[in-house]
Every structure is written in C-alpha cells, then in structure tokens.
Design a protein that fits this description.
Elements (H helix, E strand, L loop, with lengths): L4 H17 L17 H5 L13 E4 L1 H4 L5 H13 L9 E3 L25 H11 L3 E7 L16 H11 L3 E5 L8 H15 L4 E4 L7 H5 L5 E3 L8 H12 L10 E3 L12 H13 L4 E3 L8 H7 L2 H7 L8 E6 L2 E7 L5 E7 L5 E6 L10 E6 L4 E7 L1 E6 L4 E8 L1
Parallel strand pairs: 1-2, 1-8, 2-3, 3-4, 4-5, 5-6, 6-7
Antiparallel strand pairs: 9-10, 10-11, 11-16, 12-15, 13-14, 13-16
Helix pairs in contact: 6-7, 9-10, 10-11, 10-12
The structure holds 2-acetamido-2-deoxy-beta-D-glucopyranose (4 copies).
The site of one 2-acetamido-2-deoxy-beta-D-glucopyranose (NAG) has 5 residues, from helix 4.
InterPro entries: Aldolase_TIM, GH, Glyco_hydro_27, Glyco_hydro_27/36_CS, Glyco_hydro_b, Melibiase_C
Protein name: Alpha-galactosidase
Function: May regulate leaf (and possibly other organ) development by functioning in cell wall loosening and cell wall expansion.
Length: 409
C-alpha cells in the first residue's frame, strides 16, 4: 500500500485527473498509494492565499484552557513562545479558540471581542503578536452560535465577519461546525473560504468539520487544513483513533492543504512521556498541523524536549510535503513511513501493544530498493548508524516509538 515507484505513477495519474477535471475521482485514491507527485506539480495547487506550503505550527488555547482565556494569558503565552525559542523553531501561530468574543454582535452587526477578557481588543492583540514575529488566530463557527454557545456564529454573516477579521489583522481562522441547521457543509465552508479570500489578506483557513461528509475530498479545494475527526482528548486511545482516522485521507494532503487530526495534547498530563513522544512522531510524520495544546509558560522540561525536537519538526516541515502513512501492521506493531526530499525516507517504528516488542521495517515495506544501503538517523537519540541494509528494527517499550531518517548512500 505504500508508494514505491509503481504507485508513485498511480499517484501522478490521479493528481492529473484532479488538476484537469477538478472532479472527485480522487476519492478512490484515499484507499491506496497516492500523494507521491513531485513538489512542482503540487505547487500549482496552492490556494489563492498561497499559505501553508508546510503544515502550520503554533499554539491553540482549547486543549488546556477551554473557555478560560484572557488577554494576559495570551500575551504570556506569546512571550514564552519567543523566550523559550519555540517561535524560532516555527511555532508562530497563537490561536484563540472558542470564548474570545462577546455574546452578541454590535449595533452594526459586527463580532466584538469579549470586553472583560480582551479589554484592548483584537486589533491591539494582533499588533502585539505581530511585533514579536507571531501571528493571531481566531475561532468562529459556521452555524448560528459557537460550540460553547458563548458567541454568535457566522452563518449568514460570512462576508462581514471575514472583513472584521482582516481589519483586525487576523492571520488564521479555525471554523467550527456547531448549530449548523443541517445545511450543506461544503456550501457553508465555501462561503467563508470565498469571503476570506476576497478580503485580500492571507488568512489560513482551517476547516473544523470533524471529518464528517468526507471533508478531505472537498476541503482540499478551499482550505489550508481540515480536521479529519472529532475533538481529541488527552488520552492514549483518543490519540490513536485520531491518528488512524487521519491516515485514511493521506492522499489528499499536499503543500497548501493538510489533513488535521487535531491539536497536540503533549504536556497536558493524561499520557506518559513515551505516549506523548509517539503522538508527536506520528503527527509530524503525517504532516499534521503542529498546534501545541498545553500551558506554554509553565511547561515542564520534558514537554519542552519533545516539542522542540528540531529533527522531528524538520520531518513535519519537509519541503516535499507528502503525508507519511501507516505502511505495515502486525497486531499492535506498526510501521509508518513517508518520503522526504532528497530521496530520504522517514520511518516510525511503533509498539502500540502493552508488552515490550521488537518492530521491524523491511526496505520493501517503506518503498526503498532492497539492495540500497542507508544512513539511519535516530532523531531522538540524535545518533546515526551507517551502512544499514535490508531492514531496520527497534526494541520498544509499551506504547513507545522511534523515528529514523534513512538517507540512501
Ligand atoms: C504558571 O505558574 C505560576 C506559578 O505557579 C503561576 O503563578 C502562573 O499563573 C502560571 N501561569 C499560567 C499561564 O498558568
Ligand atoms: C529545566 O531547564 C532549564 C533550562 O534549560 C534549567 O535551568 C532547569 O534547571 C531545568 N529544570 C529542571 C527541573 O530540570
Ligand atoms: C555494508 O554492509 C554490507 C553488508 O552488511 C557489507 O558487505 C559491506 O562491506 C558494508 N560496506 C561498508 C562500506 O561498510
Ligand atoms: C522491557 O521490559 C523490562 C521490564 O519488564 C524493562 O526493564 C526493559 O527496559 C524493557 N524495554 C526494552 C526496550 O527492552
């Protein structure tokens, strides 16, 4: 099922169909291979906003803070992103989720910031973030109210709300799916996509439709990222389910538009460090948006060490932009892999079971010529093995994984 050279050709053909006819035959591609087209062809496929050539990175308030957000917290988070060096590693989006706004629109029908929580307003917050090289993300809903019901929804107000966001200097919009009156999802999301593009301000459009209605097959044409599942929780099983769901749509990801298995839970306390490392490995390999979801100012050193692993981030941000996939499964033992630029391959060996185990990837599992010798870089041990042939193996604790970059010699 993984793209060797033969299914690379299939991937190219499917992409050609998509470019020429714009039809959804690509649905068939979800099942096998695909996604292996060259970067030049995919570059033609960026949205008009030209954003998200690589998956977006940053922070979102929801997983740790829920509705409990206010200006001071956001500024502290931004300050910590910069002072701890995370901004420099690429985590530049500071995204407010639900509950940033007032409960009703103003007399002109505009959305307004919550007066007590954000007394300086969103324009001032955007300026603050921009002055630090960061970007402001907001949340809105494609129905009548947001999911917490604390703010008005944007249904029927798409133009006005997009203009409001642009006038504040917003850079990213997460657009949710609550209270949508059963109206067609593609139409609702297309309206906001068009409205954002019309403002002329490049605003990353992140569809949050929870992976209903085969979202990857149409979001692909109008958004920079799209959620492939319901909300993640801070547990091993919730994380696994999202990893697997997201994997089904791998062939639809490309520079400019990414599958999104939801924000990271790393650092929130519900999983072990090994589990969080696996969470981060798989999100990075799958070219998921890397949105940190913990308390940044107070994060532990262990959490920091996971989130700041530059070699793992480099896999996520690789310029080839092909989503890595599950390529082999033997009970609870799995191999995930994907191509990187320069004929390199990223591979994750993952023990999802509850006992120690050895996980092995054969070159034939991961699209490498069986005769090739590689340098294998362990991105957590930060060490390399030279002249590795035929296969790579790791002895793994329960729920642990290792990620390697294989460079053919
Ligand atoms: C971080 O911890 C300190 C000390 O416990 C506390 O005063 C502060 O409010 C915390 N900051 C956040 C953002 O939770
Ligand atoms: C965490 O890291 C900082 C900076 O690297 C260091 O000064 C501090 O001692 C570490 N804290 C612990 C508990 O190891
Ligand atoms: C690489 O490994 C193969 C097989 O293990 C061996 O025959 C060969 O001599 C090695 N080459 C180098 C340069 O070490
Ligand atoms: C396997 O299990 C034992 C404990 O039963 C542990 O000490 C050991 O380090 C484990 N991990 C590996 C990778 O062998």
């Amino acid at each position: 099922m993984y793209m060797g050279n033969s299914s690379l050709a299939v991937g190219l053909m499917l992409l050609f169909v998509r470019l020429v006819s714009g039809v959804d035959e690509v649905a068939a591609a979800a099942a096998g291979g695909g996604g292996g087209a060259g970067p030049m062809m995919r570059a033609d496929f960026l949205l008009a906003n030209r954003l998200a050539r690589t998956p977006p990175m940053g922070w979102n308030s929801w997983n740790h803070f829920g509705c409990d957000i206010e200006e001071k917290l956001i500024k502290e988070t931004a300050d910590a992103m910069v002072s701890r060096g995370l901004a420099k590693l690429g985590y530049i989006h500071i995204n407010l989720d639900d509950c940033w706004g007032a409960s009703s629109r103003d007399t002109e029908g505009r959305l307004v910031a919550h007066a007590r929580k954000f007394p300086s307003g969103m324009k001032a917050l955007a300026s603050y973030l921009h002055s630090k090289g960061l970007k402001l993300g907001l949340y809105a809903d494609s129905g009548t109210r947001t999911c917490t019901r604390s703010m008005p929804g944007s249904l029927g107000h798409e133009e006005q709300d997009a203009e409001t966001f642009a006038s504040w200097g917003v850079d990213y919009l997460k657009y949710d799916n609550c209270l949508n009156k059963g109206l067609d999802a593609e139409e609702r999301y297309k309206k906001m996509s068009d409205a954002l593009l019309r403002t002329g301000r490049p605003i990353h459009f992140a569809i949050c439709e929870w992976g209903k209605e085969k979202v990857a097959t149409w979001a692909n044409y109008m958004a920079n990222s799209w959620r492939t599942s319901g909300d993640i929780r801070d547990s091993w099983n919730s994380m696994l389910l999202r990893a697997d769901r997201n994997d089904e749509w791998a062939s639809f990801a490309r520079p400019g538009g990414w599958n999104d298995p939801d924000m990271l839970e790393v650092g929130n306390g519900g999983m072990t460090l090994e589990e969080y490392r696996s969470h981060f490995n798989i999100w990075a390999l799958a070219k998921a948006p890397l949105m940190i979801g913990c308390n940044i100012p107070n994060m532990s050193n262990e959490t920091y060490e996971i989130l700041s692993n530059e070699e793992v981030i480099a896999v996520n941000q690789d310029k080839l932009g092909v989503q890595g996939k599950k390529v082999k499964k033997d009970g609870h033992l799995e191999v995930w892999a994907g191509p990187l630029h320069g004929n390199k391959v990223a591979v994750v060996l993952w023990n999802r079971g509850s006992r120690n185990a050895t996980v092995t990837a054969l070159w034939s599992d991961i699209g490498l010529d069986p005769t090739v010798a590689v340098m294998a870089r362990d991105v957590w041990a930060h060490s390399s093995q030279y002249n590795v042939t035929h296969q790579i193996s790791a002895d793994l604790d329960p729920h642990a994984s290792k990620m390697y970059i294989l460079s053919p010699r």
